[in-house]
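Archive entry: two folds, one per protein. Generate the first.
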Amino acid sequence: MNSFKKINDLAGWVIFAIAAFVFLKTIEPTGSFWDCGEFIAAAYKLQVGHPPGASLFLMMARIATLFAFGNTELVPVTVNAMSALASAFAVLFLFWSVSLLMRKFIKAEADNKYSVSQLIVILGSSAVAALAYTFSDSFWFSAVEGEVYATSQFFTAIVFWAMLKWDNVADEQHADRWIILIAYLMGLSIGVHLLNLLCIPALALIYYYRKYTPSRIGVFTALAVGTMILAVVQYGIIAGFIKIGAKFDLLFVNSFGMPLWTGFLFFILLLVSGIIYGLHYSRKRNKPVLNTAILCFAFILIGYSSYTMTVVRSMANPPMDENDPEHAFNLLGYINREQYGDRPLAYGQYYNARVIEQEKGAMSYTVADSKYVPTGNKIIPVYEPDKCTVFPRMYSNQPNHISAYKEWAGIQGDATPIMSQNMKFFFSYQIGYMFWRYFMWNFAGRQNDQQGHGGILKGNWLSGVKAIDAMRLGPQDKLPESMKWNKGYNRFYFLPLILGLVGMFFHFKQDKHDASIVMLLFIMTGLAIVIYLNQTPYQPRERDYAYAGATYAFAMWIGMSVAAVAQWLLKKTKAKAAAAVSLAVCLLAGPLLMAREGWDDHDRSHRYTPRDFASNYLNSVAPMGTIFTNGDNDTFPLWYAQDVEGIRTDVRIINLSLLNTDWYIDQMKRKAYDSPPVPFTWKHEQYVQGTRDYIPFADRRIEGFTDLREVMKFILTDNPAAKVTLGGEQMNYFPTKKFYLPVDKEAVIKNKVVQPENYPNIVDTIFFEISKNYLMKSELMILDLIAHNDWTRPIYFAVTVGNDSYLNLEEYFALEGLAYRFVPVKSDKGRSGQDGKVNSTVMYDNMMNKFKWGNMADERVYLDQNNLNMTMNFRNNFSRLADALLEEGKKDSAFKVLERCLEVMPDKTVPFNVFMLRITDGFYTIAGADEFLVSESNLPERNTNRKKALEYANVIVKRLSDIQEDDIEYYLSLKGTPFFKQVDRDLNQAMAILNELARQARANGQTALADSVSARFKALESRL
């Protein structure tokens, strides 16, 4: 056995080395999109990220950043490498866990030694399981970026392994130290992510099988106890500890006049005293189970204490201080994720239920003059009883969610759903689409990396077995290159799935108790999450990373298929040969196939797009400017760029989602790096949470336009005559939707708000009209800034913000890059027909000289959907800039702009799409121009540019026509099947593009090319 331990340990570390190499080789060299930029920025300076925080993760990542040795460009590499190594350790503990499980039913032979064939089977099964998990899609995705999920999975792996180790030595003295270690690890994991807690029911089952004689009622009791412990930890310890402490603090601060946190510390002192007494009592009365339970409770709290860092750092008021959890009640809201609202789980409303009344929930508090000041009760809506149900799955009243609910559940009209439809949505969407689809990505194959919402073209699982795929996605014989080109097009032919099922049945046959534990782990980290999340349709991103625990459990069974196949081969050959052949077959059909297919869409090395795109946003802003952003991907990378690499620290990023909160407005009114405070005029008590969270419109029939500054004063008054009654509550309101803002032309010119050539176009007054019936706090703050800024601080809106947040100010926008500048010059829609005038002088300098392109032209770089979506904005901006230059007669400059577009985003890495139509039109315009401005170029260069422009345009027309024809052939192959109607929109767009290409070519004298494209169009049209 000692020799086996050495071999087992060595083999495990070899697998660890392989996994570490894979993950370190494929990590992203900068902060990835979504939350990664925020996590890296928060870790680098120990700031406070979004709720519920990740205090331990941030401290671990901060230590990792020290290995950058002051090179800020290496900071994200060190954090991403930490995720890679944490993932490799998860793989290591998976190896050892499978080894422990296998040895329960593969017993050593004579002299307590394993034979060579047994060693191959045990270690081979462990290796195949570990490597299958290494190359599984969802786990690999998290392993190469600075997010919490890799570290969270490490805690899941080590906790599960530790429980199996306890199971091995449960009868030995001091074996319960393993249970206490598990409690401590779980406490620590709270500071990373709560997913680890889902192991608790499986751990309870391990304990039950080891300590008791199994029975059906006993198993159910163990599961019930495990679930109860899970609930106690999540709701009693994590939330309850802070809630009780906050109440103590309220008493001590407001009633006894003591400093903040005094009552909380007193509560901790009481708790510690109780723990000490309990330990003493249990030892004195010889109650070992009670003693162990108290120790577990204590060690969970010790691990949980990592959140002390969150409070301490919030008190330091760093630039990123989300929710400002520097007093007990803010910390409670932070831990409970109150910022994100709530969702019904056991009982609640359907999407069409009306609110019939409102109940008062817990009181909210803020701090003023070192006292807790109530800011109002949380409002709990009460819905129509006949439109509520147990286990509500379709609850959101957002219009796009409602339409999707009806489509997934088969609901006609406006009828209230019935339970069968509620469950149909649960099984078809929440389980089928938001779990099973992800599971199949990992072990059957994947169609592409584009986010899907239920159609046949994007984001589905796909095996590569055409007959089976055709039943779900339509005929696969004429798949276009645009689909095959996608690096996410991974075909596993069901082989890893089959191996896992073989291993699962084999495990149940050999040891049903342990198999049921693995199955419970699979259910808790898969289906239980589905139920708890209660996800709505149209998620902003794919959520497969949340289910990495389920793929972890299934990978164990993939490994055990080695033993299953070896056992079958024993009937036909010798033991050594059977073991070796089985190992080879399972390696080839599992991990190696998964590695070959998945490498190109998981290799993020050489990709710098998130950082460079963030830099482009910031460099679109004039010095000391402000930029309004909205989503994660136009905010978090910008935070990273500023906080870590020090890019444009003079720019103030204002996230509109967060601007609805008082704590964020407070932070905007503080200096940050080189950025002065944002000049909001509202006082804290005027926007404190619960005050003016939104303002309704009440029509007072005011004629004409009203001064915006006067309306803002009216909104801020506390005079009862300036309020309306809504829902039994007195509220401020705005009495008109038509506003004007006088323009100080001298201030505009002095502060260089517009270019000198636009001085004659500066308006005396800005007139605008909003269309909304209520204004959120964030929109009120936009209006406040605009009303009182007096053109001293440049104001920008990111192009990704969306029209809804522009407040109908688009007529006064100037496009200067990836942001619109608010200017007192009214714009007309130019050639592009889009909102906002292009400031060609500034935008040309930004896009041609300042912008970076993230290495997009390198064929080694993997550009996923997030990146390709960004390229649409860039191509659109290139074409808009070129159009503006052409309107100004600057044709040489327009040519350089369009040529740069092709250079930084070539077809080989960023396939031509509909946005190329305007690029082609620009090239044709240049090629057909009568003359170039002499001031821009000499005659030979003018002729060269004309010739090149024509060549570029024709090449794009030919290539884009090929792409469209290939796509259309695929769409037409679906004709006569139920899938054809699902591609109707895509088919029509492709036909329209083809027709437009023919029109452009003909209009610019390219008759032969136009005839060729037209012939293709007519041939395809005849088959519709």
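Generate the second and append.
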Amino acid sequence: MNPSRIFIERPVATTLLTVAVALAGATAFTVLPVAPLPQVDFPTISVSASLPGASPDIMASSIATPLEREFGHIAGVTEMTSTSSLGSTSITLQFELSRDIDGAARDVEAGINAARTYLPANLPSNPTYRKVNPADSPILVLGLQSSTYDVPQLYDEASTVLEQRISQVPGVGEVLVVGASLPAVRIELNPNQLSSYGISLPSVVQRVAGENVNLAKGQLSNGQVTSDIVANDQITSAADYRPLVVGYSRGGAVRLSDVAQVIDSQQTVRQAGYLNGKPSVNMLIFREPGANIISTVDAVKAAMPSLEATIPRGQHLVTILDRTLTIRASVSDIERTLLIAVLLVIGVVFLFLRNARVTLIPAVAVPVSLIGTCAIMYLFGFTLDNLSLMALAIASGFVVDDAIVVMENISRHVEAGLTPMQAAFKGAQEIGFTVLSISVSLIAVFIPILLMGGIIGRLFREFALTLSSAILVSLVVSLTATPMMCSRVLAPRREANHGRIYLATERLFNRTLEGYRRSLTWALDHPLLILGVFLATLASNVLLIEAIPKGFFPQQDTGALRGGLEGSEDVSFYAMRSALEQSVEIVKSDPAVENVMGFTGGQGATNTGSEFIALKPLDERKVSAETVIDRLRPKLARVPGATTFLQAVQDIRIGGRQSNAEYQYTLQAETTAALQKYGPELLAALRKAPGFVDVNTDQENRGLEALLTYDRATAARLGVTPQMIDDTLYHAFGQSEVSTIYTPLNQYYVVMEVAPQYWQSPQGLNSIYLIPGSAPGSAAVPLGSVARYAASTAPLVVNHTGLFPSATVSFNLAPGISLGQATREIEAAEQKLGMPQSIHGEFSGTLAAFEQSLTTEPYLVLTAIIAVYIVLGMLYESLVHPLTILSTLPPASVGAIIALWLTGLELDVMSIIGVILLIGIVKKNAIMMIDFALDAERNEGKGTRESIFEASMLRFRPIMMTTMAALFGAVPLAIGSGMGSELRRPLGISIIGGLIVSQALTLYSTPVIYLLMDTLRLKGFRGD
């Protein structure tokens, strides 16, 4: 049976079919969405709750814990972490990849409703949730600046108008407005004057709240008309609040202006943001899990003209950071890499064939196969990303193999004297099974990748399917268009007229072939020596794999940096603001930095700040992101008051916990006491250990605390209750929102606290008085008479992992240190500290995924080998010959690891994928040899040695041609230096190294092992 015959006989139909495949692929290529990596995200939901003024302990116990108990009942939760700080709690829920995020959101909403009964009664609003991973970096950062409007007005415009409009854009998960707060009327009380008038702070709250109302008042109606009743019951400016009467003293009215400064200001004065050193309000735009970055940012940009039209003149919207610029540059670079790979592959074929007319055959097969694959990618819903385009670049060396094998076999018959048409019929029939074996067994290599679970499996599923699709399209093209073109393009032997260059290169090849003939004869005469070399390479695999440094994913340069500022635990907001200003100025002064935005304050830990940095394009800055970080690190270390930690933003971010470094290790315990002892000890040990930089922790246990001990007996005698004291303290120091101002677009607050000179030191507590009686002029009770003050410490942040308290140490790696070495250092440090069994340590986030990959990678490679063996055994109906074919693998893996070692790279996920690809690439050499040898034995009656020797000689040219094509197809990946090249380089280098070593050894080891296996078979092993 010859399936190619019908296509050879019908050249017009075959040509049109080939053109149709190319057109379908070209059309799909234009509409395929662009992304940095395949659209794979853990369904992640962030839940937030706030209670202004509440301590971290109160937030953790009264808000985080009830919510976590309810969330713990939700199916499919893989990770639950929470962070509770001053007035704020954030809980992050990460679900299984198979979980639908909308269904998960409904379960989270039900959990919030179930927990509402157990939450504090004075919680201003229900907890809210967003379908977004807070640990991700924003895809777009916008800034709002003005020389005429003050910062609260900018924040009002951003949060009232812009945030709402942007949040409605499809794909946007959250818009976070930072750098200021809403406009507000602030009442800054003088507690000494209040006490002299006998007026309590809670009574001021009641008076202010009662003077500013916005309630329904009904209607007036008669038989003819109806009128709504409206009034000036709501007051909106500080000038209207100043004359309010808040009490009476000695027969006279006490107005608010008598006891307080009333100003138009902002909701919180402890928040600041900067853009390139100037005050700014900034908007961080995050995408929903699974949303395409490019399409989401494009949709936001499309809305920008209308957004700018809605803001007042004098306010300017600035793009600070746009992740899509580097994503597009990365995809554009891999597209150029793909084009170069195709040209190199065709160039290699031309060098072997030395005939432009004949080279036209693979020159058609390669691009048609790759372009046709795009149509399948479109049907599967794939994207044009680094991995899928990398798969196409690698496939350029694969897809040419089938065309070369078919064309070479047909050419051999033409040289034997057959006409091109006769040779096409005969050659295609002979080689059809070989091409099928190569393609099917190559696809079998990807079966383990397709079956992989977790984030790594999902990431590389698109890679594997793209490669498999390219191979299938290539198989179809090679059995249809290639033999048809051979029958029309190849010249009959008598018409062949070669020039001097062709004849000279042919003589060179013949001398090479003659050298191979002599060396192969020697190898077959000394089989034990060849087997010894083979066994040595087999043993070398174990030693090299154990010794080579191991990593997870290469560090990417995405053109964006993320910075975290961490001050001492007792640092004030004003000191943090000063440190942030200096840090932003230093970062902006670096020549590689385009924009830098920073902010601090607001709700959360008071000693932290954040920065987002956009770097200039790579071809302009000429240095990597890691180099920029390394030269900024010593400069930032000189900033007093706070430490700045920088890390390059990565496309792959695993875990929902925010941190100031790339990798995390988490300690869990049933109580916080054990963590308070061993958490700092582990932090100190890692800071001393070599190889770790930017070591920090989220454990903040030494914040200053003003501990008040109530004298309940004295308080009861004086008519003072603890609730009265708490209310008074909250209204004095908690920036309490005592009233709401309603407007058509937003709601604003009246914020009350004591004047700044009273809350800037503990001495302000001495000015707080309690008024227990309700009658005017009631005696004022000093706070000091019913409470004792003592300085103490308390946590600034309380963290939970699951339901238990936790502390996470984060770190980056020093140059030359692998992730495998870092994990061993952490385990050694933990053992040296002698932590009790009540403390459980585990790798989290990216580090946990790395540990999992270390355990699964050997099984992945083994499964790939077993899958190939099963497929080959079924194709050849033999248990022996698949072993011969698989004997090509040990030299390939040795070559790959040696190449990685020589280039200073780690054995990571990308290089492991390269090793798996080598399984598919190098076995084709053995398939071409063995397939011909078996045919010679069965149909021509030749002996085993004679048949394998003849097969090796006849297949030497196509073996060299296909190997060199695959090698040169990987060269652009290995030497690329553009955006995104960090991901591609380990893959290309491992393939090149594996091909070089494997080609050098298997040309001799495969014939020897074939003879050995045949001898074993004849002596009793009945595999056939």
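Annotation attached to the second fold: Residues 981-1018 form the longest helix (38 residues). The radius of gyration is 36 Å.
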